Amino acid sequence: MAEEFVALGHAGSENYAGLETFPNPGVALVEMTSDELVAMCPITNQPDMYVATIEYEPDKLCLESKSLKLYLASFRNEGAFCEALAVRIRDDVAQALELPAERVSVALQQKARGGITIVAST
Prior knowledge:
Blueprint: E1 21-23, E2 30-40, E3 47-56, E4 61-63, H1 65-73, H2 82-97, E5 104-113, E6 116-121
């Protein structure tokens, strides 16, 4: 957990310091959704655009939203299949929150490209 947020309150991705957290104020379930996730297809190098929904049952920590936004933006130039990306995001969020992976779920809905929409959930 960060004593002071690095990304929050600062413009630009140069202030990204990884997924940041703060003490859980007493919530039992958190759901965060973003339609700004873009990763590259590892075969065609075409951009794949996603709606990402991350849901977790917090224990001691909650995820700070701007650090999540910058984390998701970091995939813009990476090649990844939808299914592998869902697992990676789940594992990274679980690690930041100090939770077992079973308490974090990630659903990525890949926007249609080539007439096919993919939804991968952990």
